[in-house]
Amino acid sequence: MEILAFGVQADEKPLLEKAFAGHYEIRCLDVFLNEDTAPIATGHEIVCTSVNCDLGSGVLEILAAGGTRMVAQRSTGFNNIDLQVAERLGLRVARVSSYSPYSVAEFAWTLAMAVNRRVVRAATRTRDFDFRLDGLMGRDMHGRTAGIVGTGKIGEAFARIAHGFGMRLLGWDVAENPACLELGMTYVSKDRLLAESDLVSLHVPLMPQTSRLIDADALKLMKDDAILVNSSRGGLVDSAALVAELREGRFTGVGLDVYEAEAGLFFLDKSLEAIEDDTLARLVTFPNVLVTSHQAYYTVDAVGQIVEATAQNVLDYTAGLRSANVLVPRS
Question: Which Pfam families does its entry note (predicted)?
Fold first, then answer.
């Protein structure tokens, strides 16, 4: 049996091939799954997808009609999948429940420190042999307040790094994490966290109740010189509202590894095309904004774990087994 994998990055391909070696053939495509590419999967019982693939009702209908019976998603997030339609069509859908939280937490800190210490601007200058310090002044993180929105495994890892900097820790979540409490974190309301934090980092999943969690009202609560980092899901932030605040000269820095309309853009080379997304085009022009292309998870450790878990999901399916990674069927 051949498994068809969509949206595979060049660095990811050998890891996938190694994970499935001795079990099944895997055909890796760099194109993403959508209604135009879904017919390619005809005759493949199992397809493997990434978070920027389109698994809405139309795509799922095409897959099911072509003989697909399982979708193995190579991510923790699954907001791109219409689970109700998948269940109606009799598809099994599995994801990767967890992988190295350090990959994302460390990258979130990379974004925070890059915008705080003006690293991109400094590197650009020195390539032109401009060694002035004007406009490069940052600030110590020690003694300042880190607000962590979502204190699961990734939020906890981020908090441990903040604790190492000697920061005051504020947290917001539906449940308190005992490990974060041991670090000295104080759980507060979201409004208080936003108002008191010098650095706000987002680590919650994208669900209906968290969509645009950081909207215009939330942004106005934040300090004018705060740093905002989002390495979770783009839909957590109202991008147009963020642009409006940035135009007012607010925020020391904003680090975004995700964007609410990233599908069809991120993971692709658009350098020779006109970008029709005016909000994204405006965001990247601000000198205090750093946008990266959803790479926080992209370490050999995390991707290796994701690939291994994906392969195990497939093996469980073919063996008639079920694990906690299965989203559909629900029982």
Answer: 2-Hacid_dh, 2-Hacid_dh_C
Spell out the domains of the chain, with CATH numbers in brackets. Answer: 2-99+300-328 (3.40.50.720), 101-291 (3.40.50.720)
- Tell me which residue of 216, 217, 221 sits closest to 188, measured CA to CA: 221
Contact 61, 89 (CB under 8 A): yes
Tokens of 77: 């997030």
Band of pLDDT at residue 331, cut at 50, 70 and 90: confident
Of residues 306, 328, 127, 115, the one with CA closest to residue 228: 115
Give the other-Cβ count within 10 Å of 54's Cβ: 21
Alpha helix locations (H) across the chain? 13-20, 57-65, 83-88, 101-116, 119-127, 153-165, 178-182, 190-196, 216-221, 239-247, 278-283, 300-318
Q: Is the pTM of this model over 0.90?
A: yes
The catalytic residues are 233, 262, 294
Which residues lie closer than 8 Å to 200 by C-beta, 6 or more apart? 147, 149, 193, 194, 222, 226, 227, 228, 229
Q: CA 114 to CA 80: how far, in whole Å?
A: 30
Q: List the one residue out of 223, 269, 228, 254 whose CA is nearest residue 10.
A: 269
Report, in angstroms and rounded to the nearest whole number, the Rg of the chain calculated over CA atoms.
21
Q: What angle do CA 159, 163, 168 make, to 5 degrees?
A: 90
What is the tens place of the pLDDT at every residue in 109-129?
999 999 999 999 999 999 999
- Within 10 angstroms of residue 299's Cβ, the number of other Cβ atoms is 17
The CA dihedral of 239, 243, 246, 247, to the nearest 10 degrees, is -170
